[in-house]
């Protein structure tokens, strides 16, 4: 008992000393990153594998992911080194890769390896990262709940583009596991992973420099069944019940309006349900538009109920009103249905094209590996045509809707596998 008390007191003392050390830390303890002594621009190859895609929060516009990232670059300053144990990694230059759009990082494990090419004494440094983090993503919700989203993990180097550039490692495929996706009840996760380099915009930097980015994008499509059956269909029933007001004689406007306005208040309650499923946005989603159209229709019904009590031929007015309002409902739903069909078809076509180009890229990489047994490719332009031919590499720039600058990637092969 006494020994345990002593251990607890020592632990508390250690924590106090650490706090004192932190408070007394001076500017001399700051970490300063030195530029490369050779002044050369370094091309860093990236390979990404999403091990698990976690929760996608539409309201917060965030998603979580467990990711394995690897970066390769040639390092002439390590000539003669053959094993990673020979290198003091804390004292070496590194590409300073950060998670540009990460909200929080729960886990980050980093390891270094040295890879030697046959006939070349300049080693390749491999930096492996296992990361579990939450990322920010600005979602486009115009088509909610028939929307699809691009979930992008952005890597950035703290070195400007004059010193570092990113490129995709064409020697090995980027992958994403769909079987570990935890949001499969609400979303459909596609099996392609689109990776491409870019650079920051001038307004994203507080200095005059621009910095390299690397975008790792997965596509998900929302399963709209929950919102269709629990919100849109219920709203349709409430709107359809508005026609029951015609069963009340037109000379009793209070009773007629009581039916219509009660249904209108029910629609207002459903509008709040829709609002809770979305972030605070300045535009109307597709579901918002449908709910508002239903409410506008009920307002028209309330106006009709009031006018029916003052017209001379109330029976004929009711008959004409019922026909006109029924026609409005039918035509509105027909237009809505056609627009949804066209939109969904167009979206599915784009996603199928992304899938196709990703698979073509994977086939090219597989054929290259079967010929060379190389897993690192990206340091010279000549290897581009050796893998995918003279055309632009498939799967790297296959969707202009992503809004990312075009950047050419290059490749090289090595003979040893990390």
Structure report:
- With 418 residues, the protein is α+β, with helices and mostly antiparallel strands.
- The protein folds into 2 domains: 42-222, Distorted Sandwich (Acetylcholine Binding Protein, Chain: A), CATH 2.70.170.10; 226-345, Up-down Bundle (Methane Monooxygenase Hydroxylase, Chain G, domain 1).
- The protein has 6 helices and 10 strands.
- Strands 1, 2, 4, 5, 7 and 8 form a 6-stranded mixed beta sheet that branches. A 4-stranded antiparallel beta sheet has the order 3-6-10-9, covered by helices on one side.
- A hairpin with a 4-residue loop joins strand 1 (42-57) and strand 2 (62-74).
- Helix 2 packs antiparallel against helix 3 (253-276), helix 2 packs parallel to helix 4 and helix 4 (286-308) packs antiparallel against helix 5 (314-372).
- The two termini are 51 Å apart.
- Mean pLDDT is 85; it is low at 25-29 and 392-418.
- This is Gamma-aminobutyric acid receptor subunit beta-like isoform X3.
- Its main location: membrane.
- It comes from Branchiostoma belcheri.
- Residues 34-223 form the Neurotransmitter-gated ion-channel ligand-binding domain.
Please write out the topology.
Layout: H1 2-24, E1 42-57, E2 62-74, E3 97-99, E4 102-115, E5 124-136, E6 148-157, E7 164-168, E8 175-176, E9 187-199, E10 212-222, H2 225-241, H3 253-276, H4 286-308, H5 314-372, H6 382-388
Parallel strand pairs: 1-7, 1-8
Antiparallel strand pairs: 1-2, 2-5, 3-6, 4-5, 6-10, 9-10
